[in-house]
Design goal:
Shape: elongated
Distance between the termini: 216 Å
Strand order of the largest sheet: 1-2
């Protein structure tokens, strides 16, 4: 008779032991076929006997340990493994089967060398993986790649340098081509120099191509210069290229392509049309193309101001009209106010480009959104959105992390593709505020300057008036003084005359009288002689 799972006995009423697995127990004896996972530490027919200490699980019939915890071995798992670095050893022999991280060997007494994950083979010590820059089974080979051009740094193959940088050779490119450092390339195996660095030649690149260092490359065997540095020419690169060369010049002749506005074998002459000529014949100097804004054979005439840029070289007619103008001579305006450029003559013309924000044949339609900076002229769909928006109507926002995005897909665009209109607006607004402030400050300074100037002029006039008064007073005093001096002089002269006359009268008792004038005539004689003489002379 078969009992239901979990029961045994003649009448199948006896329940299997709780330690039995779901497989159940023997229907006759009630012995468990296997002990349940929760009873790995037990053994016996009913899984009721406890396994020995340190035994993770034991034989169901005999109680002998089947698995020991890490670090122990033996039938009862009572013996410790031979070394402390052994993680797991054989339950029967005690030989180590697994070492702790970073160790290897039969007794786990060797350290792993330079393994990146601190794990190596227990028998050989070979690393599982190496850190960057190291190679070999034990990761003990450092990959020195500073002089290698092509290399391989591998755990199995080791470090292999298959090509060296310029100037180095050897298995691992660790040797310099020449001690003087003048060899550019040398054989990787022999180190024999194949090419010298710029400016040197000779067997070991010991000689300079030229003393002036103007020769770039010269023949390795003869030293004859093959190529000059930019801006020089000649057999030994001893001549400088003409100053008006556009770029380098020919090594043998010194000739070159001329800069705009010059011609001649050595670009020593100015074009006949002067600075207004863009290109001229290198042989004759006649102008072949004028600069923008000029026309005629010698480019002496200016293009009309209604032209945008260039005009016809021989007629002076505009190649393109300024925005809003049309006709052959650009002397008529586009009728539509929102038309930026139009094309045609007379009444037969059409608008070719609308002003920003408008579209249609006559530019009469407004773009669908204020965020649309430019829309298709015939379809009206937006072709240029304000930063931060996308779509045919610029009505979809870019992601928060985007400053601007693709018009079609909305994917983020690099910052240098953005228009930054808001930044320019705020910058303009700030500049306007600054300009307004500067205007106020300027007005204040002008007013202050006028006040200071008025005060200075007033002070100057006051000082000048005072000076004039002082000069007048001084002149009056001088005149009075002069009058007084004159009076005093006359009086003094009279007194002197009287005194002299008295003296002469006393001593001489003579006088000379002039009857016609009744004046005293004083003869120019010495006073002493007059005094000494006693003769009197009368005028008859």
């Amino acid at each position: 008779m078969n009992c239901a799972q979990g029961y045994w006995g003649a009448d199948c009423k006896s329940r299997c032991s709780e330690g039995c697995t779901d497989i159940g127990c023997d229907k006759v004896t009630g012995s468990c076929f296997e002990c349940d996972s929760g009873y790995h530490g037990f053994w016996g027919s009913n899984c009721s006997n406890i396994c020995p200490n340190n035994c993770e699980s034991c034989d169901k019939s005999s109680g002998t340990c089947l698995f020991c915890p890490n670090g122990f071995w033996g039938s009862n798992c009572s013996k410790p493994c031979s070394t402390k670095n052994c993680k797991m050893c054989d339950i029967n022999t005690g030989f180590c089967k697994s070492c702790e991280s970073g160790f290897w060997g039969p007794d786990c007494n060797y350290r792993c060398n330079n393994c990146s994950n601190i794990k190596c083979d227990i028998s050989t010590g070979a690393c599982e993986t190496c850190p960057d820059g190291f190679a070999g089974e034990n990761c003990n080979i450092k990959c020195e790649i500073s002089t290698c051009l092509i290399w391989q740094c591998d755990k199995k193959q080791g470090f292999v340098c298959s090509s060296c940088l310029n100037g180095f050779w050897g298995t691992l490119c660790g040797k310099r081509c020449m001690p003087n450092g003048n060899c550019n390339y040398c054989d990787k195996t022999t180190g024999i120099c194949d090419s010298c660095v710029s400016g040197y030649w000779g067997t070991v690149c010991e000689k300079k191509c030229s003393e002036s260092d103007t020769c770039e490359y010269c023949d390795r065997n003869t030293g004859i210069c093959n190529s000059c540095l930019s801006g020089y020419w000649g057999n030994h690169c001893e001549h400088g290229c003409p100053k008006n060369c556009d770029g380098n010049c020919h090594k043998s002749t010194g000739r070159c392509s001329c800069k705009h506005g010059f011609w001649g074998d050595l670009c020593e002459r100015k074009c006949l049309a002067g600075d207004r000529c863009q290109y001229c014949s290198k042989t004759y100097g006649t102008c072949s193309a004028c600069k923008n804004g000029y026309w005629d054979s010698l480019c002496e005439k200016e293009c009309p101001i209604v032209c945008t840029g260039q005009c016809d070289r021989y007629t002076g007619k505009c190649s393109y009209c300024r925005p809003g103008l049309r006709d052959v001579n650009c002397n008529r305006t586009c009728i539509e106010k929102n038309c930026e450029t139009c094309k045609g003559t007379g009444d037969s013309y059409s608008c070719t480009k609308c002003r920003a924000g408008y579209w249609g044949q006559g530019c009469e339609n407004q773009c669908s959104s204020e965020r649309c900076l430019e829309c298709h002229m015939t379809e009206g769909r937006c072709i240029l959105c304000e930063d931060g928006f996308w779509g045919n109507s610029c009505n979809q926002k870019c992601q928060n992390s985007c400053q601007c995005c693709s018009l079609t897909y909305g994917t983020c665009s690099a910052p240098h593709y953005c228009l930054r209109i808001h930044d320019r607006y705020h910058a303009t607004e700030s500049l306007s505020q600054i300009d307004y402030t500067l205007i106020i400050v300027g007005v204040i300074l002008i007013v202050c300057s006028l006040v200071v100037l008025s005060l200075a002029l007033g002070l100057f006039c006051y000082i000048k008036r005072r000076s004039k008064k002082r000069e007048g007073a001084a002149t009056s005093e001088d005149q009075n003084f002069a009058k007084q001096s004159g009076s005093y002089t006359e009086e003094s002269e009279r007194q002197d005359t009287v005194e002299i006359s008295s003296l002469q009268t006393r001593k001489v008792n003579r006088s000379y009288m002039v009857q016609e004038t009744n004046k005293v005539f004083e003869e120019e004689v010495d006073h002493e002689s007059v005094v000494e003489t006693d003769d009197t002379y009368e005028n008859p």
